[in-house]
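Narrative summary of target 7.
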Amino acid sequence: MRTLYRSLLNVLPRLGVQVLNLGSGTAVLSRRGKRKRVSVGREADLVTRGGGRYAVTRVRPDTWVVARGRGDPGKNAWTNVRLGDTGAHLLYDAKASDERALQLAAAAYLCGHHVAGLLEKYEVNCVFDVGANAGQYGRRLRSLGYTGRIVSFEPTDEAFAKLEKAAENDPEWWVYPFALGREESSQSMHVGWATMNSLLPASDYGKDRYRRFARDRTEEIEIRRLDAVLDEALAGLTDPRPYLKMDTQGYDLEVFAGAGDRIKEFVGLQSEVAVLRLYEGSPPMNEAIAAYEDHGFGITGMYPVTREDTTGRVVEFDCVMMRADAVPG
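Modeled conformation, tokenized:
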């Protein structure tokens, strides 16, 4: 004997109502567009409109990730990796992911969050962004929740115009159109290398690795010492707790030297250190780290920035260092 419920389900299509019967006394009614059922598991169903493809990945007992246009309906699109006991999960497409690209992207993500955590822990209120390029680092800091002052330095005309644009609506993001180094001077900078412009010429290894180094032109830039601009950059801060980020394509130790004795005022630093040197005259990683350690900084994190495709060797690391005695009491 038909129930009233079953009878209604049979009648409704004649009245122009689409019916998707999910069983167990459950149905989805719609006036337009055909609906489709994709099983998510024993506890749930996904109801979709149209005939597109969907794939479902179970993350936790009560959580699923739905991807549209990937594979066959009901098949997993992502690999789900639980990250220890943190409650976090890593989802990635195992078929599409390149191991090297995945590793470097993960390192960049982890480095950003590590730095953001340290800025909060050490109560940093001014970040010196040396080698700012178009403002990528400053934007990342803001996206990670840092609200203190950012002071960015970028000497090349093209990149500085982009940096100025990035910071124009942020009153606590200050920008300066010059480089920092050991001595105050004017020098020629190699430009046209996108994010890799440098005061140093490319090494033979660098030329073999990057085609961009073949397009060499120079631009005259101004160089200042860090200790000469420190007071202006920290003006208005009652208890300055600065952090020094350097990404100057082989010139970081020169920037560091320009701080003189005032380097002791910095609670931490971040430097791109080279295992395989892309620039002539740039210091090797062990020399750079030793110089930083001699001034009281200790390593809190090392994150690969670039790696060789063929060998897997790391070319450069982002090295994050802090003064252990600078942790607020």
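Residues 267 and 323 are 5 Å apart (CA to CA).
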